[in-house]
Amino acid sequence: MKKSYYKNMQIIIFLYCISHISVAIGLTADEIVYETTQEVLNRLELDKERLQTEKKHIKVIVRELIMPHMDFKTMSALGDNWEILNGGKQACLSRGFKNLLVERYAHVLLSYRNHDIYYQTAKPIGEKDYVSVIQTLTRSETKSSTIEYRMHPDGDSWKVADLLIDDVSLIRNYRKMFNKEIKQEGLVGFIKNFKECSL
C-alpha cells in the first residue's frame, strides 16, 4: 500500500509541475504581462501585512515574479563600451543593472498598486519581431499613467527589453546616465561604482 501511495503522489506532483510549466510556455506577450501582473497583485494582497512592517519585501516580490521576464543582456548593454568588456565585467554589470531595476520597479509597483489596470493587445513595433504591450493605470483622484513593455520572442516565451513609464524609457534613461558617467570617469571608474563589480 505504501508503494502505491508514493507512486500516486509522484504522479500528482508530476502533473502539477507539468500544468504550471504549460502556463509559462506558449503564452503571448500580452498574456504574459496580464498573468504576471495578476500574480503580483495577488502576492501584494497576500503579503500586505508583511509589507507594512517590512518595506524591503517588495523587492523579493519583484525579483521572484517580474525579473524572470526581463532580458538583462539586452537591457544592460552599453554599445561599443559593452563589447570591450570581458565576460566577468559584463556579468557583474548585468547584476548591478538588475538590482537598479528591481529598486525602480519596486517603487513603481508601490506607487500604482491601488490603480485600476487596463490592457491593450500586443502590437508589432520596429524590427526583430518586437511587440509593445501597454497597461493603463487609472485612479479617480489622479490622472492616468501608462506602463509600456517592449518585448521580443525568447524561445517559447517573451522577454521585456525595455520599459516605458508615461512614454519615458527607463532603459534609455539609464544608458544616457551611464554613458555620461563613462565619459567623466572612464570605463574602469564607472564599473567601480557598482558594488557588484568590486566583489
Molecular structure report:
- This protein is α+β, with helices and mostly antiparallel strands.
- The chain has a single domain, classed as Nuclear Transport Factor 2, Chain: A, CATH 3.10.450.710.
- The protein is built from 8 helices and 6 strands, in the order H-H-H-H-H-H-H-E-E-E-E-E-E-H.
- It has helices at residues 2-24, 29-46, 48-53, 57-66, 72-76, 80-83, 87-112, 170-192, and strands at 116-119, 123-124, 131-139, 142-154, 157-165, 168-169.
- Strands 1, 2, 3, 4, 5 and 6 form a 6-stranded antiparallel β-sheet that branches.
- Strand 4 and strand 5 form a beta hairpin.
- It starts with a helix and ends in a 7-residue tail after the last helix.
- Residues 1-25 have low confidence and may be disordered.
Mean pLDDT: 78
The portion of residues forming beta strands comes to: 15-25%
Termini separation (Å)? 54 Å
H-E order: HHHHHHHEEEEEEH
Helix content: 55-70%
CATH topology-level name: Nuclear Transport Factor 2, Chain: A
Unreliable runs, pLDDT <50, ≥5 residues?
A: 1-25
Tally the structural domains: 1
What about the largest sheet?
6 strands, antiparallel
Helix tally? 8
The CATH H-level homologous superfamily: Tgt2/MlaC
What characteristic shape results from the CA principal axes? globular
